[in-house]
TrEMBL record, chain B:
Record's keyword annotation contains Cell membrane: yes
Primary site of residence: membrane
Taxonomic path: Bacteria, Bacillati, Bacillota, Clostridia, Lachnospirales
Ranges where the ABC transmembrane type-1 domain occurs: 65-276
Keywords associated with the record: Cell membrane, Membrane, Transmembrane, Transmembrane helix, Transport
Protein name (Swiss-Prot/TrEMBL): Sugar ABC transporter permease
TM segment ranges: 7-27, 69-90, 102-123, 151-171, 211-235, 255-275
Similarity section: Belongs to the binding-protein-dependent transport system permease family.
Amino acid sequence: MKSKIPQHTPIGWIIVMFKWLLMFGWAAMTFLPLYWVVINCFKPSDEILRNSLEWPASLSLANFISIMSYPDVNIPKAFLNSFIISGAVVVLVVAVSSMAAFALGRMENKMGKYIMAVLTACLLVPSFATVIPNFVTLSNIPFVHGNRIAAILPQTAGNLCFSIIMVQGFMRSLPMELDEAAVIDGASVPQIFTYISLPLCRSVLATVAIMVFIWSYNDLFTSLVYVSERSKQPICVILSMVSNMFGTDYGAMMAAIVVTILPPLVLYIFAQEQVVSGLTAGAVKG
Amino acid sequence: MKSKKYFYLFLAPAAVFILTFLIYPLFRTIYYSFTSWKNFSPKQSFAGLANYDRLFHDPVILVAFRNTFIMMAGVFLFQVGVSLLLAILVSKTKKMFKFLRTVYFIPILISATAIGLMFRLIYGYEYGLLNLIILWFGGEKQVWINEKTSIFLVTIPIMWQYVGFYFVIFLTGMSKIPGEISESAKLDGITPFQEAVYITIPMIRDVITSVVILVISGCFKVFDMVYVITGGGPMNSSELLSTYMYSAAFRNYNGGYASAIAIVMVAFGVLLSTVTRRILEPKETY
Protein backbone atom coordinates (compact mmCIF):
# COMPACT_ATOMS: atom_id res chain seq x y z
CA MET A 1 0.00 0.00 0.00
CA LYS A 2 1.29 3.36 -1.04
CA SER A 3 0.27 6.67 0.34
CA LYS A 4 1.60 10.12 -0.48
CA ILE A 5 2.35 10.87 3.16
CA PRO A 6 4.55 8.05 4.42
CA GLN A 7 4.06 7.44 8.08
CA HIS A 8 7.75 7.55 8.98
CA THR A 9 8.26 11.22 8.04
CA PRO A 10 7.75 13.87 10.75
CA ILE A 11 4.61 15.24 9.03
CA GLY A 12 3.21 11.75 8.79
CA TRP A 13 3.80 11.25 12.50
CA ILE A 14 2.07 14.52 13.36
CA ILE A 15 -0.98 13.56 11.30
CA VAL A 16 -1.18 10.14 12.88
CA MET A 17 -0.79 11.64 16.37
CA PHE A 18 -3.48 14.22 15.63
CA LYS A 19 -5.85 11.53 14.43
CA TRP A 20 -5.47 9.50 17.63
CA LEU A 21 -5.72 12.66 19.69
CA LEU A 22 -9.09 13.44 18.09
CA MET A 23 -10.44 9.93 18.48
CA PHE A 24 -9.41 9.57 22.11
CA GLY A 25 -10.23 13.20 22.80
CA TRP A 26 -13.86 12.58 21.97
CA ALA A 27 -13.86 9.37 24.00
CA ALA A 28 -12.58 11.44 26.94
CA MET A 29 -15.24 14.10 26.33
CA THR A 30 -17.85 11.35 26.48
CA PHE A 31 -16.50 10.03 29.75
CA LEU A 32 -15.76 13.28 31.58
CA PRO A 33 -19.33 14.28 32.63
CA LEU A 34 -20.15 10.68 33.51
CA TYR A 35 -16.94 10.28 35.49
CA TRP A 36 -17.68 13.51 37.36
CA VAL A 37 -21.15 12.29 38.34
CA VAL A 38 -19.93 8.85 39.36
CA ILE A 39 -17.09 10.05 41.61
CA ASN A 40 -19.37 12.62 43.25
CA CYS A 41 -22.20 10.24 44.00
CA PHE A 42 -20.04 8.70 46.72
CA LYS A 43 -19.25 12.02 48.43
CA PRO A 44 -21.22 13.94 51.03
CA SER A 45 -22.43 17.32 49.72
CA ASP A 46 -19.86 19.39 51.65
CA GLU A 47 -17.05 17.36 50.09
CA ILE A 48 -18.51 18.05 46.62
CA LEU A 49 -18.56 21.76 47.40
CA ARG A 50 -14.93 21.70 48.48
CA ASN A 51 -13.65 19.84 45.47
CA SER A 52 -15.82 17.98 43.02
CA LEU A 53 -12.93 16.85 40.83
CA GLU A 54 -11.04 14.75 43.36
CA TRP A 55 -11.44 11.07 43.96
CA PRO A 56 -13.82 10.53 46.92
CA ALA A 57 -12.17 10.31 50.35
CA SER A 58 -14.18 7.21 51.10
CA LEU A 59 -16.56 5.17 48.97
CA SER A 60 -19.58 5.86 51.14
CA LEU A 61 -23.04 4.74 50.07
CA ALA A 62 -24.74 7.38 52.25
CA ASN A 63 -26.20 9.21 49.23
CA PHE A 64 -27.83 6.06 47.94
CA ILE A 65 -29.32 5.35 51.35
CA SER A 66 -30.59 8.92 51.60
CA ILE A 67 -32.32 8.92 48.17
CA MET A 68 -34.07 5.72 49.14
CA SER A 69 -35.58 7.39 52.20
CA TYR A 70 -36.59 10.84 50.95
CA PRO A 71 -40.07 11.64 52.31
CA ASP A 72 -41.85 12.70 49.10
CA VAL A 73 -40.01 10.62 46.53
CA ASN A 74 -39.94 6.89 46.60
CA ILE A 75 -37.10 5.85 44.31
CA PRO A 76 -37.59 2.06 44.57
CA LYS A 77 -41.28 2.55 43.80
CA ALA A 78 -40.41 4.79 40.85
CA PHE A 79 -38.08 2.09 39.54
CA LEU A 80 -40.84 -0.47 39.85
CA ASN A 81 -43.22 1.87 38.00
CA SER A 82 -40.66 2.34 35.22
CA PHE A 83 -40.27 -1.38 34.78
CA ILE A 84 -44.04 -1.97 34.85
CA ILE A 85 -44.69 0.76 32.27
CA SER A 86 -41.81 -0.03 29.93
CA GLY A 87 -42.26 -3.79 30.36
CA ALA A 88 -45.93 -3.58 29.45
CA VAL A 89 -45.19 -1.35 26.46
CA VAL A 90 -42.57 -3.81 25.20
CA VAL A 91 -44.89 -6.82 25.57
CA LEU A 92 -47.78 -5.02 23.88
CA VAL A 93 -45.69 -3.63 21.02
CA VAL A 94 -44.03 -6.98 20.30
CA ALA A 95 -47.33 -8.90 20.41
CA VAL A 96 -49.43 -6.43 18.43
CA SER A 97 -46.77 -5.51 15.87
CA SER A 98 -45.78 -9.12 15.13
CA MET A 99 -49.41 -9.96 14.41
CA ALA A 100 -49.90 -6.95 12.15
CA ALA A 101 -46.57 -7.58 10.46
CA PHE A 102 -47.61 -11.17 9.81
CA ALA A 103 -50.76 -9.99 8.03
CA LEU A 104 -48.88 -7.38 6.01
CA GLY A 105 -45.75 -9.39 5.25
CA ARG A 106 -47.05 -12.95 4.77
CA MET A 107 -50.61 -12.59 3.50
CA GLU A 108 -51.86 -11.34 0.16
CA ASN A 109 -54.43 -8.59 0.26
CA LYS A 110 -54.95 -5.63 -2.01
CA MET A 111 -55.35 -3.34 1.03
CA GLY A 112 -51.83 -4.18 2.21
CA LYS A 113 -50.01 -1.43 0.33
CA TYR A 114 -52.48 1.26 1.44
CA ILE A 115 -52.11 0.22 5.06
CA MET A 116 -48.33 0.39 4.71
CA ALA A 117 -48.63 3.92 3.30
CA VAL A 118 -50.74 4.98 6.29
CA LEU A 119 -48.21 3.48 8.71
CA THR A 120 -45.36 5.31 6.98
CA ALA A 121 -47.28 8.59 7.16
CA CYS A 122 -47.91 8.00 10.87
CA LEU A 123 -44.15 8.06 11.47
CA LEU A 124 -44.32 11.82 10.91
CA VAL A 125 -46.74 12.36 13.79
CA PRO A 126 -44.85 13.31 16.97
CA SER A 127 -46.37 12.80 20.40
CA PHE A 128 -46.90 16.57 20.72
CA ALA A 129 -49.59 16.43 18.04
CA THR A 130 -51.62 13.79 19.86
CA VAL A 131 -50.97 14.57 23.51
CA ILE A 132 -53.90 16.87 24.26
CA PRO A 133 -56.75 14.71 22.87
CA ASN A 134 -55.10 11.60 24.35
CA PHE A 135 -54.96 13.34 27.72
CA VAL A 136 -58.70 14.07 27.45
CA THR A 137 -59.54 10.51 26.36
CA LEU A 138 -57.50 8.91 29.14
CA SER A 139 -58.81 11.28 31.80
CA ASN A 140 -62.35 10.20 31.05
CA ILE A 141 -61.72 6.54 31.80
CA PRO A 142 -61.91 5.72 35.53
CA PHE A 143 -58.92 3.77 36.97
CA VAL A 144 -56.89 4.79 33.91
CA HIS A 145 -56.69 8.50 34.67
CA GLY A 146 -53.27 9.42 36.04
CA ASN A 147 -52.36 5.78 36.42
CA ARG A 148 -49.55 3.77 34.85
CA ILE A 149 -51.80 2.43 32.12
CA ALA A 150 -52.42 6.01 30.97
CA ALA A 151 -48.78 6.08 29.82
CA ILE A 152 -48.74 2.49 28.56
CA LEU A 153 -51.53 2.85 25.98
CA PRO A 154 -50.30 5.96 24.08
CA GLN A 155 -46.66 4.86 24.31
CA THR A 156 -47.61 1.53 22.73
CA ALA A 157 -49.48 3.29 19.92
CA GLY A 158 -46.53 5.64 19.37
CA ASN A 159 -44.11 2.74 18.93
CA LEU A 160 -46.32 0.50 16.82
CA CYS A 161 -46.00 2.01 13.34
CA PHE A 162 -42.24 1.78 13.23
CA SER A 163 -42.15 -1.69 14.78
CA ILE A 164 -44.71 -3.05 12.31
CA ILE A 165 -42.75 -1.67 9.35
CA MET A 166 -39.51 -3.15 10.66
CA VAL A 167 -40.92 -6.61 11.48
CA GLN A 168 -42.96 -6.91 8.27
CA GLY A 169 -39.83 -6.18 6.23
CA PHE A 170 -38.17 -9.11 7.96
CA MET A 171 -41.18 -11.42 7.57
CA ARG A 172 -41.37 -10.62 3.85
CA SER A 173 -37.74 -11.71 3.43
CA LEU A 174 -38.48 -15.24 4.70
CA PRO A 175 -39.14 -17.79 1.92
CA MET A 176 -42.86 -18.11 1.11
CA GLU A 177 -42.44 -21.86 0.52
CA LEU A 178 -42.42 -22.33 4.30
CA ASP A 179 -46.07 -21.34 4.55
CA GLU A 180 -47.07 -23.23 1.42
CA ALA A 181 -45.58 -26.43 2.78
CA ALA A 182 -47.36 -25.89 6.10
CA VAL A 183 -50.69 -25.29 4.35
CA ILE A 184 -50.29 -28.57 2.47
CA ASP A 185 -49.61 -30.29 5.79
CA GLY A 186 -52.93 -28.91 7.03
CA ALA A 187 -51.76 -26.06 9.29
CA SER A 188 -54.17 -23.22 10.00
CA VAL A 189 -53.19 -19.55 9.70
CA PRO A 190 -52.79 -19.02 13.47
CA GLN A 191 -50.65 -22.17 13.63
CA ILE A 192 -48.39 -20.91 10.84
CA PHE A 193 -48.03 -17.62 12.72
CA THR A 194 -47.23 -19.25 16.07
CA TYR A 195 -45.06 -22.16 14.99
CA ILE A 196 -43.33 -20.92 11.84
CA SER A 197 -43.19 -17.12 11.51
CA LEU A 198 -42.76 -16.08 15.15
CA PRO A 199 -39.81 -18.37 15.96
CA LEU A 200 -38.02 -17.21 12.80
CA CYS A 201 -38.52 -13.55 13.78
CA ARG A 202 -36.89 -13.89 17.20
CA SER A 203 -33.88 -11.74 16.34
CA VAL A 204 -35.81 -8.81 14.85
CA LEU A 205 -38.35 -8.95 17.68
CA ALA A 206 -35.52 -8.82 20.22
CA THR A 207 -34.16 -5.71 18.49
CA VAL A 208 -37.62 -4.12 18.54
CA ALA A 209 -38.05 -5.01 22.21
CA ILE A 210 -34.73 -3.44 23.21
CA MET A 211 -35.39 -0.29 21.17
CA VAL A 212 -38.87 0.14 22.64
CA PHE A 213 -37.68 -0.53 26.19
CA ILE A 214 -34.92 2.07 26.10
CA TRP A 215 -37.15 4.62 24.38
CA SER A 216 -39.98 4.12 26.86
CA TYR A 217 -37.71 4.02 29.91
CA ASN A 218 -36.06 7.29 28.90
CA ASP A 219 -39.14 9.16 27.72
CA LEU A 220 -40.08 12.01 30.02
CA PHE A 221 -42.73 13.85 28.02
CA THR A 222 -45.50 11.25 27.83
CA SER A 223 -45.13 10.07 31.43
CA LEU A 224 -45.03 13.65 32.66
CA VAL A 225 -48.36 14.40 31.00
CA TYR A 226 -50.27 11.16 31.44
CA VAL A 227 -49.12 9.85 34.85
CA SER A 228 -50.17 12.48 37.36
CA GLU A 229 -50.33 10.30 40.49
CA ARG A 230 -47.04 10.68 42.34
CA SER A 231 -47.00 7.05 43.54
CA LYS A 232 -47.37 5.79 39.95
CA GLN A 233 -44.72 7.95 38.26
CA PRO A 234 -41.68 6.36 36.61
CA ILE A 235 -38.10 7.19 37.53
CA CYS A 236 -37.49 9.80 34.82
CA VAL A 237 -40.38 11.96 36.05
CA ILE A 238 -39.06 11.73 39.61
CA LEU A 239 -35.58 12.61 38.36
CA SER A 240 -36.88 15.71 36.58
CA MET A 241 -38.20 16.98 39.93
CA VAL A 242 -35.19 15.97 41.98
CA SER A 243 -33.32 19.26 41.65
CA ASN A 244 -36.25 21.15 43.16
CA MET A 245 -36.90 18.65 45.90
CA PHE A 246 -33.40 17.80 47.02
CA GLY A 247 -32.48 21.48 47.28
CA THR A 248 -28.75 21.62 47.88
CA ASP A 249 -28.24 17.93 48.48
CA TYR A 250 -25.91 17.59 45.48
CA GLY A 251 -24.64 14.18 46.52
CA ALA A 252 -28.17 12.81 46.48
CA MET A 253 -28.77 14.27 43.00
CA MET A 254 -25.62 12.63 41.68
CA ALA A 255 -26.69 9.31 43.20
CA ALA A 256 -30.17 9.66 41.67
CA ILE A 257 -28.62 10.22 38.23
CA VAL A 258 -26.38 7.19 38.60
CA VAL A 259 -29.19 4.79 39.56
CA THR A 260 -31.43 6.10 36.77
CA ILE A 261 -28.94 5.56 33.98
CA LEU A 262 -27.92 2.07 35.11
CA PRO A 263 -30.62 -0.16 33.51
CA PRO A 264 -30.03 0.88 29.86
CA LEU A 265 -26.27 0.68 30.39
CA VAL A 266 -26.58 -2.85 31.80
CA LEU A 267 -28.66 -3.79 28.76
CA TYR A 268 -25.93 -2.29 26.57
CA ILE A 269 -23.25 -4.45 28.22
CA PHE A 270 -25.20 -7.64 27.54
CA ALA A 271 -26.68 -6.95 24.10
CA GLN A 272 -24.47 -4.29 22.56
CA GLU A 273 -25.06 -5.14 18.89
CA GLN A 274 -28.83 -5.29 19.26
CA VAL A 275 -28.94 -2.04 21.25
CA VAL A 276 -26.89 -0.21 18.62
CA SER A 277 -28.87 -1.56 15.66
CA GLY A 278 -32.21 -1.08 17.42
CA LEU A 279 -31.57 2.53 18.37
CA THR A 280 -30.13 3.58 15.03
CA ALA A 281 -32.91 1.83 13.10
CA GLY A 282 -35.50 3.42 15.36
CA ALA A 283 -34.23 6.89 14.60
CA VAL A 284 -36.96 7.69 12.12
CA LYS A 285 -39.70 6.95 14.63
CA GLY A 286 -41.97 9.90 15.38
CA MET B 1 -51.54 -17.10 1.85
CA LYS B 2 -54.93 -15.63 1.17
CA SER B 3 -57.51 -15.26 3.88
CA LYS B 4 -59.53 -12.09 4.27
CA LYS B 5 -60.79 -13.11 7.69
CA TYR B 6 -57.34 -13.66 9.21
CA PHE B 7 -55.82 -10.65 7.45
CA TYR B 8 -58.17 -8.29 9.25
CA LEU B 9 -58.16 -10.30 12.46
CA PHE B 10 -54.37 -10.04 12.74
CA LEU B 11 -54.44 -6.33 11.95
CA ALA B 12 -57.28 -5.52 14.35
CA PRO B 13 -55.32 -4.92 17.59
CA ALA B 14 -52.82 -2.64 15.84
CA ALA B 15 -55.66 -0.78 14.13
CA VAL B 16 -57.42 -0.17 17.45
CA PHE B 17 -54.25 1.28 19.02
CA ILE B 18 -53.27 3.41 16.04
CA LEU B 19 -56.75 4.75 15.36
CA THR B 20 -57.50 5.55 19.01
CA PHE B 21 -54.20 7.03 20.11
CA LEU B 22 -52.62 8.33 16.91
CA ILE B 23 -54.97 9.13 14.03
CA TYR B 24 -58.10 10.21 15.91
CA PRO B 25 -56.15 12.52 18.27
CA LEU B 26 -54.24 14.04 15.34
CA PHE B 27 -57.49 15.18 13.72
CA ARG B 28 -58.87 16.15 17.10
CA THR B 29 -55.85 18.42 17.65
CA ILE B 30 -56.50 20.06 14.29
CA TYR B 31 -60.10 20.63 15.36
CA TYR B 32 -59.11 22.00 18.79
CA SER B 33 -56.72 24.43 17.15
CA PHE B 34 -59.72 26.23 15.61
CA THR B 35 -61.58 26.51 18.89
CA SER B 36 -61.48 28.59 22.00
CA TRP B 37 -61.08 25.99 24.72
CA LYS B 38 -59.79 26.53 28.23
CA ASN B 39 -59.32 24.49 31.42
CA PHE B 40 -60.10 21.20 29.65
CA SER B 41 -63.80 21.98 29.99
CA PRO B 42 -66.12 19.60 28.15
CA LYS B 43 -67.16 22.32 25.70
CA GLN B 44 -65.19 24.07 22.99
CA SER B 45 -66.49 27.02 21.03
CA PHE B 46 -65.48 27.53 17.43
CA ALA B 47 -63.08 30.45 17.12
CA GLY B 48 -61.90 30.27 13.52
CA LEU B 49 -58.32 31.33 13.06
CA ALA B 50 -58.10 33.25 16.36
CA ASN B 51 -55.47 30.91 17.82
CA TYR B 52 -53.32 31.10 14.71
CA ASP B 53 -53.70 34.86 14.61
CA ARG B 54 -52.49 35.10 18.20
CA LEU B 55 -49.66 32.68 17.39
CA PHE B 56 -48.26 34.81 14.58
CA HIS B 57 -48.20 37.86 16.86
CA ASP B 58 -46.79 36.05 19.88
CA PRO B 59 -43.18 37.14 20.52
CA VAL B 60 -42.43 33.89 22.37
CA ILE B 61 -43.24 31.88 19.22
CA LEU B 62 -40.65 33.95 17.41
CA VAL B 63 -38.11 33.18 20.14
CA ALA B 64 -39.03 29.48 19.92
CA PHE B 65 -38.44 29.45 16.16
CA ARG B 66 -35.18 31.36 16.54
CA ASN B 67 -34.07 28.86 19.20
CA THR B 68 -34.97 25.89 17.03
CA PHE B 69 -32.84 27.29 14.22
CA ILE B 70 -29.94 28.09 16.55
CA MET B 71 -30.14 24.52 17.77
CA MET B 72 -30.21 23.15 14.20
CA ALA B 73 -27.22 25.27 13.20
CA GLY B 74 -25.23 24.08 16.21
CA VAL B 75 -26.17 20.50 15.61
CA PHE B 76 -25.25 20.68 11.91
CA LEU B 77 -21.92 22.41 12.39
CA PHE B 78 -20.74 20.62 15.44
CA GLN B 79 -22.55 17.33 15.88
CA VAL B 80 -22.77 16.23 12.25
CA GLY B 81 -19.29 17.62 11.52
CA VAL B 82 -17.61 15.90 14.44
CA SER B 83 -19.41 12.62 13.90
CA LEU B 84 -18.54 12.57 10.19
CA LEU B 85 -14.89 13.34 10.96
CA LEU B 86 -14.74 10.66 13.66
CA ALA B 87 -16.43 8.13 11.38
CA ILE B 88 -13.89 8.80 8.61
CA LEU B 89 -11.00 8.42 11.06
CA VAL B 90 -12.32 5.36 12.86
CA SER B 91 -13.33 3.54 9.66
CA LYS B 92 -9.65 3.55 8.70
CA THR B 93 -8.60 2.15 12.07
CA LYS B 94 -8.39 -1.55 12.62
CA LYS B 95 -7.19 -1.36 16.21
CA MET B 96 -9.53 0.07 18.86
CA PHE B 97 -12.44 0.24 16.38
CA LYS B 98 -14.79 -1.68 18.64
CA PHE B 99 -13.73 0.15 21.79
CA LEU B 100 -14.23 3.61 20.32
CA ARG B 101 -17.62 2.76 18.89
CA THR B 102 -18.73 1.35 22.24
CA VAL B 103 -17.66 4.48 24.09
CA TYR B 104 -19.08 7.01 21.61
CA PHE B 105 -22.49 5.36 21.73
CA ILE B 106 -22.91 5.45 25.53
CA PRO B 107 -24.60 8.89 25.81
CA ILE B 108 -27.46 7.78 23.51
CA LEU B 109 -28.53 5.26 26.13
CA ILE B 110 -28.88 7.86 28.84
CA SER B 111 -32.18 9.68 29.15
CA ALA B 112 -32.26 13.35 28.26
CA THR B 113 -33.63 13.87 31.76
CA ALA B 114 -30.50 12.46 33.40
CA ILE B 115 -28.20 14.29 30.99
CA GLY B 116 -30.13 17.50 31.58
CA LEU B 117 -29.78 17.21 35.33
CA MET B 118 -26.11 16.32 34.91
CA PHE B 119 -25.44 19.46 32.85
CA ARG B 120 -27.48 21.55 35.28
CA LEU B 121 -25.04 20.42 37.94
CA ILE B 122 -22.09 21.08 35.61
CA TYR B 123 -23.32 24.66 35.02
CA GLY B 124 -23.99 25.18 38.75
CA TYR B 125 -22.47 28.21 40.45
CA GLU B 126 -21.11 26.90 43.75
CA TYR B 127 -19.80 23.49 42.85
CA GLY B 128 -20.28 23.15 39.08
CA LEU B 129 -17.66 21.43 36.99
CA LEU B 130 -17.41 24.38 34.62
CA ASN B 131 -16.70 26.92 37.36
CA LEU B 132 -14.21 24.55 38.91
CA ILE B 133 -12.27 24.32 35.66
CA ILE B 134 -12.36 28.13 35.37
CA LEU B 135 -11.03 28.51 38.92
CA TRP B 136 -8.34 25.98 38.08
CA PHE B 137 -7.12 28.25 35.30
CA GLY B 138 -7.29 31.26 37.61
CA GLY B 139 -10.57 32.73 36.33
CA GLU B 140 -13.67 34.05 38.06
CA LYS B 141 -16.78 32.03 38.84
CA GLN B 142 -19.71 32.72 36.52
CA VAL B 143 -23.47 32.43 36.61
CA TRP B 144 -23.77 30.46 33.39
CA ILE B 145 -27.46 30.30 32.61
CA ASN B 146 -28.90 33.71 31.72
CA GLU B 147 -31.19 35.07 29.04
CA LYS B 148 -28.45 35.36 26.44
CA THR B 149 -26.76 32.01 27.01
CA SER B 150 -29.64 29.70 27.89
CA ILE B 151 -30.34 28.34 24.40
CA PHE B 152 -26.66 27.66 23.78
CA LEU B 153 -26.29 25.91 27.12
CA VAL B 154 -29.18 23.55 26.36
CA THR B 155 -27.82 22.88 22.86
CA ILE B 156 -24.44 21.71 24.21
CA PRO B 157 -25.76 18.56 25.94
CA ILE B 158 -27.89 17.75 22.87
CA MET B 159 -24.80 17.96 20.67
CA TRP B 160 -22.79 15.96 23.19
CA GLN B 161 -25.40 13.22 23.36
CA TYR B 162 -25.94 12.55 19.67
CA VAL B 163 -22.42 12.63 18.19
CA GLY B 164 -22.10 8.87 18.78
CA PHE B 165 -25.47 8.24 17.18
CA TYR B 166 -24.66 9.91 13.85
CA PHE B 167 -21.19 8.41 14.09
CA VAL B 168 -22.69 4.91 13.99
CA ILE B 169 -25.02 5.85 11.12
CA PHE B 170 -22.11 7.24 9.07
CA LEU B 171 -19.95 4.25 9.94
CA THR B 172 -22.64 1.82 8.78
CA GLY B 173 -22.92 3.73 5.51
CA MET B 174 -19.14 3.65 5.02
CA SER B 175 -18.94 -0.09 5.66
CA LYS B 176 -21.08 -0.57 2.54
CA ILE B 177 -18.52 1.10 0.25
CA PRO B 178 -16.79 -1.74 -1.66
CA GLY B 179 -13.22 -2.21 -0.44
CA GLU B 180 -11.84 -2.41 -4.00
CA ILE B 181 -12.59 1.27 -4.63
CA SER B 182 -10.38 2.41 -1.78
CA GLU B 183 -7.66 -0.10 -2.71
CA SER B 184 -7.47 0.88 -6.36
CA ALA B 185 -7.46 4.55 -5.38
CA LYS B 186 -4.53 3.86 -3.05
CA LEU B 187 -2.64 2.21 -5.91
CA ASP B 188 -3.15 5.46 -7.82
CA GLY B 189 -1.48 7.25 -4.91
CA ILE B 190 -4.44 9.06 -3.38
CA THR B 191 -3.93 10.69 0.03
CA PRO B 192 -6.27 9.80 2.90
CA PHE B 193 -7.62 13.36 2.79
CA GLN B 194 -8.41 13.11 -0.93
CA GLU B 195 -9.99 9.73 -0.36
CA ALA B 196 -12.34 11.20 2.25
CA VAL B 197 -13.37 14.14 0.07
CA TYR B 198 -13.58 12.46 -3.34
CA ILE B 199 -14.60 8.92 -2.47
CA THR B 200 -16.04 8.43 1.02
CA ILE B 201 -18.28 11.49 1.28
CA PRO B 202 -19.80 11.22 -2.23
CA MET B 203 -20.36 7.49 -1.71
CA ILE B 204 -22.43 8.04 1.44
CA ARG B 205 -24.45 10.88 -0.03
CA ASP B 206 -27.81 9.25 0.69
CA VAL B 207 -26.74 8.59 4.29
CA ILE B 208 -25.84 12.26 4.67
CA THR B 209 -29.24 13.20 3.23
CA SER B 210 -31.09 11.10 5.78
CA VAL B 211 -28.93 12.46 8.61
CA VAL B 212 -29.80 16.02 7.58
CA ILE B 213 -33.50 15.15 7.62
CA LEU B 214 -33.17 13.37 10.96
CA VAL B 215 -31.52 16.48 12.43
CA ILE B 216 -34.24 18.79 11.14
CA SER B 217 -37.15 16.69 12.36
CA GLY B 218 -35.26 15.88 15.56
CA CYS B 219 -34.75 19.54 16.47
CA PHE B 220 -38.51 20.12 16.37
CA LYS B 221 -39.00 17.25 18.82
CA VAL B 222 -36.57 18.30 21.55
CA PHE B 223 -38.40 18.67 24.85
CA ASP B 224 -36.93 16.75 27.79
CA MET B 225 -33.52 18.43 27.77
CA VAL B 226 -34.87 21.99 27.78
CA TYR B 227 -37.60 21.12 30.28
CA VAL B 228 -35.03 19.79 32.75
CA ILE B 229 -32.23 22.34 32.32
CA THR B 230 -34.07 25.66 32.01
CA GLY B 231 -37.79 24.87 31.77
CA GLY B 232 -37.82 27.31 28.86
CA GLY B 233 -36.53 30.21 30.96
CA PRO B 234 -35.16 32.52 32.12
CA MET B 235 -37.88 34.83 30.75
CA ASN B 236 -38.84 32.38 27.95
CA SER B 237 -35.36 32.82 26.46
CA SER B 238 -34.77 29.10 25.84
CA GLU B 239 -38.35 28.23 24.95
CA LEU B 240 -38.95 25.80 22.09
CA LEU B 241 -42.30 25.14 20.40
CA SER B 242 -42.53 21.89 22.36
CA THR B 243 -41.94 23.41 25.80
CA TYR B 244 -44.15 26.40 25.03
CA MET B 245 -46.92 24.09 23.87
CA TYR B 246 -46.54 22.04 27.06
CA SER B 247 -46.92 25.06 29.30
CA ALA B 248 -49.81 26.42 27.22
CA ALA B 249 -51.67 23.13 27.61
CA PHE B 250 -50.74 21.88 31.07
CA ARG B 251 -49.82 25.03 33.00
CA ASN B 252 -52.14 27.66 31.50
CA TYR B 253 -54.78 25.10 30.47
CA ASN B 254 -55.36 26.77 27.11
CA GLY B 255 -56.04 23.67 24.99
CA GLY B 256 -57.02 25.60 21.87
CA TYR B 257 -53.86 27.67 21.71
CA ALA B 258 -51.63 24.71 22.61
CA SER B 259 -53.21 22.69 19.80
CA ALA B 260 -52.46 25.46 17.30
CA ILE B 261 -48.81 25.45 18.44
CA ALA B 262 -48.67 21.66 18.04
CA ILE B 263 -50.09 21.85 14.52
CA VAL B 264 -47.62 24.56 13.49
CA MET B 265 -44.83 22.42 14.94
CA VAL B 266 -45.79 19.33 12.94
CA ALA B 267 -46.46 21.33 9.77
CA PHE B 268 -43.07 23.03 9.92
CA GLY B 269 -41.23 19.83 10.74
CA VAL B 270 -42.80 17.95 7.84
CA LEU B 271 -42.51 20.86 5.41
CA LEU B 272 -38.86 21.54 6.19
CA SER B 273 -37.82 17.90 5.93
CA THR B 274 -39.76 17.38 2.68
CA VAL B 275 -38.19 20.46 1.08
CA THR B 276 -34.74 19.36 2.25
CA ARG B 277 -35.25 15.91 0.83
CA ARG B 278 -36.28 17.39 -2.52
CA ILE B 279 -33.20 19.59 -2.61
CA LEU B 280 -30.68 17.00 -1.51
CA GLU B 281 -31.87 13.92 -3.33
CA PRO B 282 -30.32 13.41 -6.75
CA LYS B 283 -32.78 14.23 -9.53
CA GLU B 284 -34.45 11.11 -10.79
CA THR B 285 -34.47 10.70 -14.55
CA TYR B 286 -37.27 8.89 -16.25
